[in-house]
């Protein structure tokens, strides 16, 4: 990220294909607005009271308890973000190879079709910013019958 002021980032999975952030700051304190019905990921939003990465999820329009990851992005430094979701819809999160937060049970509905996503946007000022993505790896286990679960 070329700048980390007045900006928003979400990396994870969502069921929404709308051009809106799956989960974002509600603009007051450390509260959230979920635009997706099911989503999970790592969010950074400078509209939060605490400008850190947040571990967030929403299952069937019910927000999981967000967790402050206690770290924030730094301009012009690469970061590795990882979100693992199990068959029960629980999530684990890693930043730069280190697990952060605790397992998020009921992070999303397991049977819901999701798409990986990376949202990056300025939130107020007109100044431009850039974000470089080196790679994105997405994988899943196959069902026992050889099909996709």
Short description:
The chain contains no helices and eleven strands. It is mainly β and 149 residues long.
Describe the structure.
By secondary structure, this protein is mainly beta. The protein is 0% helix and 38% strand. It contains no helices and 11 strands. The chain has strands at residues 7-14, 23-25, 32-34, 39-45, 53-59, 62-63, 67-68, 81-85, 91-95, 98-104, 115-122. Strands 1, 4, 5, 6, 7 and 11 form a 6-stranded antiparallel sheet that branches. A 3-stranded antiparallel sheet has the order 8-9-10, with no helix packed on it.
How many DSSP E strands? 11
Number of helices: 0
**Run of helices and strands:** EEEEEEEEEEE
Oligomer kind = single chain
Q: Which consecutive residue ranges, at least 5 long each, have pLDDT under 50?
A: 145-149
Helix and strand arrangement:
Elements: E1 7-14, E2 23-25, E3 32-34, E4 39-45, E5 53-59, E6 62-63, E7 67-68, E8 81-85, E9 91-95, E10 98-104, E11 115-122
Antiparallel strand pairs: 1-4, 1-11, 2-3, 4-5, 5-6, 5-7, 8-9, 9-10
Keywords:
149 residues, 0% helix, 6-stranded antiparallel sheet, 3-stranded antiparallel sheet, disordered C terminus, 11 strands, mainly beta
């Amino acid at each position: 990220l070329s700048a980390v002021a007045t900006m928003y980032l979400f990396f994870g999975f969502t069921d929404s294909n709308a051009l809106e952030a799956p989960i974002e700051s509600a603009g007051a304190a450390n509260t959230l607005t979920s635009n997706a019905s099911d989503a999970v990921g790592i969010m950074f939003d400078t509209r939060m009271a605490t400008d850190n990465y947040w571990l967030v999820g929403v299952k069937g329009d019910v927000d999981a308890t967000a967790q402050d990851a206690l770290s924030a992005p730094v301009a012009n430094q690469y970061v590795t973000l990882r979100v693992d979701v199990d068959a029960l819809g629980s999530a684990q999160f890693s930043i730069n190879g280190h697990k952060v937060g605790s397992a998020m049970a009921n992070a999303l509905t397991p049977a819901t079709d999701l798409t990986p996503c990376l949202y990056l946007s300025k939130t107020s000022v007109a100044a431009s910013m850039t974000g470089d993505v080196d790679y994105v790896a997405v994988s899943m286990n196959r069902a026992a019958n050889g099909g996709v679960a």
